[in-house]
Prior knowledge:
The chain is of the alpha+beta class. It has two domains: 190 residues, Heat Shock Protein 90 (2-Layer Sandwich); 114 residues, Ribosomal Protein S5, domain 2. Helices cover 30% and strands 26% of the residues. The strands form three sheets. Strands 5-4-3-6-2-1-7-8 form an eight-stranded mixed sheet, covered by helices on one side. Strands 9-10-13-11-12 form a five-stranded mixed sheet, sandwiched between helices. Strands 14-15 form a two-stranded antiparallel ribbon. A hairpin with a 5-residue loop joins strand 1 and strand 2. Helix 2 runs parallel beside helix 6, helix 6 packs antiparallel against helix 7 and helix 9 packs parallel to helix 10. The longest helix is centred in the middle third of the chain and has 18 residues. 39% of the residues are buried. Keywords: Coiled coil, DNA damage, DNA repair, Endonuclease, Hydrolase, Nuclease.
Amino acid sequence: MIRILDKNVADKIAAGEVVDRPLSIVKELVENSIDAGATNITVEMRNGGKTYIRVTDNGSGIPEDQAELAFLRHATSKIVTDEDLSHILTLGFRGEALSSIAAVSRVELISKTADSKTGFSLKIHGGEVFEKVATGCPEGTTIIVSDLFYNTPARLKFMKSDSTESTLIIDFISRIALAYAHIKIRLINNGTILFSTNGKGDKYNNILTVYSKAVGDGLLYVYSEREDMRLEGYISRPDVSKTNKKQQLFYVNGRVINNRIMDLAVQDGYTERLFEGRYPVAYLFFTIQPELVDVNIHPNKKEVRFHRDLEVRNFIAQAIKSGLLSQQAIPQVKGGQ
Ligand code: ADP
Ligand code: MG
């Protein structure tokens, strides 16, 4: 007999596409905080995020009467029509994260908007509302996710060691912290602060804070823009190449992504300047008109597709070539911006 799955089962299935390990939860929560206009975000995890993840922001907050709604699948405040899909400016838009996370863990949402007197706490366990109470809290949102996959044993087994899971999260938060240099981002692992950026808008300074002076030394600045695209980046002089591509970080419109076109553009840009098997360091922040890129390729939003591949590749490669030729120094960002 054919029947429609009940909501709980459907949500658990859908959750599998969005939430496959602690990293995906951290990613979705931090992206929500950024979309909410936060200027301060703290991420805390324990045991690689398996037992505890907390993301706190000072963003817009969620109105109390919409709290339960936020946890329904396809519930979003970010888009309305399918037309909106062609020019997405927010990191989220699918309305799947909170429902997916809540389906496979115990979640507590604590939030307060600017125009409400008190905040509230809403607890949802395995997709079911457990408790809702008023509570005093600062403006913004905190989401605590505990006991990930407690009700999906198959997934629970697939999580790796605490250190593997935490390394992925540290790696991701490091990357996002570079791009969002105007947001103070703090990362705490098992009670220890790993880093805290200053929120003053200086990406290069964040490379030094998040990685190290050794990584920052030997970088050149690249910048190029035209009407519909812009590249800003930090790339290594050809004499400081690496044996792998781990130091190549690509961003498109503020998303941390993997992208073959940008990868190829880096290779084109360095043609004949590097020995075989050596790779440059490249932190590339690429901005493109939202109509020229499709971000809705996969639920995890880790990839994008450019409508004009070759143009993008040439533009980036050219910017890198000019940067290498001119050996531009890294501009100093003064004060907060
Ligand atoms: P999406 O981000 O795709 O809209 P989510 O499931 O991640 O979907 O979130 C659902 C909605 O909950 C968001 O559209 C937003 O309105 C609200 N929301 C989630 N997290 C936050 C937050 N940290 N601050 C303010 N609003 C939030
Ligand atoms: Mg979201």
